């Protein structure tokens, strides 16, 4: 029995994955490659985790500098670290 | 006892003293009973009753014995009251025992008893009448000096005793209104004696009379504290400004110094970046604007920022800001309205945004000349930016802290770089696997290399954590009835 991909009661998904956007981006950059149907969800998951790590790092930076607001330099320093970490 | 049946509207000193008046000379029988009750229960009443009992032993005999029946009743009451042990009953007991110092006999004995029961009892035995009055007052005052509890109260007793001597000598007992019976009053012996027994009781046991007072004080204090905490933590600045009621003036004043402390920080840290910070703080300062110094600090900060503004957008804001301090000094409401205006200005920074975003866009066309362009830069920018801003919003959610708009733009740039890396890696992995399609295994390998998927944390765990149900069902194979698994492997 195949399970329906949508829930019967509510069809409203919170935090929808921008599947079209991701596919378009991938296609733009690597037109010779194809993206599997479910892998873009995992790409979305990867993006979420990346943003999560970035946010944590920049929040740590902001708290260390005893700022109540996240500033550019906090994000920049956090991005340096996380991008290095995220390199496959 | 009449007072027993009398409705106790409030256990005020006044009523208590009235009761004392009614129940005059209840010492003798009360003494004995009080002793017993004390033996039964050593609690608040015990010190008072002890004193009273010791006093009653010696003095009451001489004074009067007519109130025995009344005393018995009172004693009975006292027994029952002791068992109940409510402030009212305790006060009643005090009153019942207190009358030694009532109109009938100016009892300075009451005071001395608290201090040193033994001394007083001895004194009482020795002296009678005025002598008794004087000696107990004098001696307890002397005995107060040697180690006795509550030296501060001793001082009061000393003063009271001295005064009482004079009063007792000169005057008969004049029933002062019970209100004067408080510590401050020195006019009536009764009041004096009443005050003194109360104090030691409070010293030895949690004060009978003070219990309700302390409760009220604590409640009010706690209430104010809670108000302050709420106003500081939960209420957003706008709400506080809107409320702007007197009760909040204190918490706002209380929080204004804290806000004031936070104010110097942005000035020290980086003024060029403190636009948003100041705007944020000004909102937080909104409630604190009631304190003039905060507004002045805000004005000074704004002026400083006006000097250090660098970009056109900042100029726009600062142009609004110099007008701000004038308004700030005038009324907090005007500032409050100004803040939303200034906040509206930063979001509507299309020139700044375009300047910043054009940089990555320019890099894109340079890097991808062979790529088929669908509709030119506009097409590229808008949906692309829209998608990136989607993730940038998630960033602000995850951060749980206020952020600058410039920081969000940097996040978008970061995401762009990240997508580049991502696509390159996936290409390499797919190529390594000899495929031209990126599959789930490639993604899993990527996440493992990134350190997101470990031996402890599997991909499915991450999927369950971060993705909504619909996607989870798509990604994680699950068994269904009929020997089917979805999604099929």
UniProtKB/TrEMBL annotation, chain A:
InterPro entries: CENP-W, CENP-W/WIP1, Histone-fold
Entry keyword set: Cell cycle, Cell division, Centromere, Chromosome, DNA-binding, Kinetochore, Mitosis, Nucleus
Pfam families (UniProt xref): CENP-W
Location of the protein in the cell: Chromosome, Centromere, Kinetochore; Nucleus matrix
Predominant location: nucleus
MF GO annotations: DNA binding; protein heterodimerization activity
A GO BP annotation: mitotic cell cycle
Gene3D superfamilies assigned to the protein according to its UniProt record, in alphabetical order: Histone, subunit A
CC terms in the record's Gene Ontology section: inner kinetochore; nuclear matrix; nucleoplasm
Protein family: Belongs to the CENP-W/WIP1 family.
Quaternary structure (record): Heterodimer with CENPT; this dimer coassembles with CENPS-CENPX heterodimers at centromeres to form the tetrameric CENP-T-W-S-X complex, which is a subcomplex of the large constitutive centromere-associated network (CCAN, also known as the interphase centromere complex or ICEN). Interacts with NPM1.
Function: Component of the CENPA-NAC (nucleosome-associated) complex, a complex that plays a central role in assembly of kinetochore proteins, mitotic progression and chromosome segregation. The CENPA-NAC complex recruits the CENPA-CAD (nucleosome distal) complex and may be involved in incorporation of newly synthesized CENPA into centromeres. Part of a nucleosome-associated complex that binds specifically to histone H3-containing nucleosomes at the centromere, as opposed to nucleosomes containing CENPA.
Name this polypeptide is given: Centromere protein W
Organism: Nannospalax galili (Northern Israeli blind subterranean mole rat)
Organism placement in taxonomy: Eukaryota, Metazoa, Chordata, Craniata, Vertebrata
């Amino acid at each position: 029995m195949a399970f329906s991909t949508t829930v019967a009661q509510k069809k409203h998904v919170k935090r929808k994955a921008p599947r079209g956007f991701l596919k378009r981006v991938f296609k733009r950059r690597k037109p010779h490659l194809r993206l599997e149907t479910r892998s873009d969800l995992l790409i979305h998951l990867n993006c979420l985790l990346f943003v999560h790590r970035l946010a944590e790092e920049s929040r740590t930076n902001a708290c260390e500098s005893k700022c109540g607001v996240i500033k550019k330099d906090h994000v920049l320093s956090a991005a340096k670290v996380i991008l290095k970490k995220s390199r496959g | 006892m009449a007072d027993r049946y009398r409705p106790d509207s409030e256990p005020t000193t006044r009523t208590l003293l009235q009761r004392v008046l009614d129940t005059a000379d209840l010492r003798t029988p009360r003494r004995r009973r009080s002793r017993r009750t004390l033996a039964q229960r050593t609690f608040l009443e015990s010190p008072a009753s002890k004193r009273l009992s010791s006093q009653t032993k010696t003095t009451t005999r001489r004074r009067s014995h007519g109130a025995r029946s009344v005393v018995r009743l009172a004693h009975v009451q006292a027994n029952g009251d002791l068992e109940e042990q409510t402030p009212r009953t305790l006060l009643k007991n005090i009153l019942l025992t207190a009358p030694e110092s009532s109109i009938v006999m100016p009892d300075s004995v009451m005071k001395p008893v608290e201090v040193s029961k033994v001394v007083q009892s001895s004194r009482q035995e020795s002296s009678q009448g005025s002598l008794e009055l004087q000696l107990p007052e004098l001696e307890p005052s002397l005995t107060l000096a040697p180690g006795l509890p509550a030296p501060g109260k001793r001082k009061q007793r000393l003063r009271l005793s001295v005064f009482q001597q004079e009063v007792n000598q000169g005057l008969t007992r004049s029933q002062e209104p019970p209100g004067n019976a408080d510590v401050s009053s020195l006019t009536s012996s009764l009041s004096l004696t009443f005050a003194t027994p109360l104090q030691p009781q409070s010293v030895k046991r949690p004060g009978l009379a003070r219990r309700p007072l302390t409760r009220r004080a604590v409640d009010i204090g706690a209430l104010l504290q809670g108000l302050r905490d709420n106003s500081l933590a939960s209420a957003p600045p706008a709400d506080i400004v809107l409320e702007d009621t007197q009760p909040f003036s204190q918490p706002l004043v209380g929080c204004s110094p804290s806000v004031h402390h936070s104010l110097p920080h942005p000035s020290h840290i980086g003024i060029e970046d403190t636009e948003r910070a100041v705007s944020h703080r000004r909102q937080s300062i909104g409630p604190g604007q009631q304190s003039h110094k905060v507004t002045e600090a805000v004005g000074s900060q704004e002026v400083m920022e006006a000097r250090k503004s660098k970009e056109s957008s900042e100029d726009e804001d600062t142009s609004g800001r110099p007008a701000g301090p004038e308004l700030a000094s005038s009324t907090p409401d005007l500032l409050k309205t100004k803040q939303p205006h200034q906040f509206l200005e930063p979001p509507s920074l299309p020139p700044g945004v375009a300047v910043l975003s054009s940089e990555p866009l320019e890099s894109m066309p340079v890097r991808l000349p062979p790529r088929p362009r669908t509709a030119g830069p506009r097409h590229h920018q808008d949906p692309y930016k829209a998608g990136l801003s989607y993730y940038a919003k998630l960033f602000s959610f995850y951060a749980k802290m206020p952020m600058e708009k410039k920081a969000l733009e940097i996040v978008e740039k970061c995401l762009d770089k990240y997508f580049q890396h991502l696509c390159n890696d996936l290409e390499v992995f797919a190529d390594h696997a000899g495929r031209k399609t990126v599959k789930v295994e490639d993604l899993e390998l990527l996440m493992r290399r990134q350190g997101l998927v470990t031996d402890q944390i599997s991909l499915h765990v991450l999927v369950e954590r971060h993705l909504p149900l619909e996607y989870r069902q798509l990604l994680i194979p699950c068994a269904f009835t009929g020997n089917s698994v979805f999604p099929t492997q």
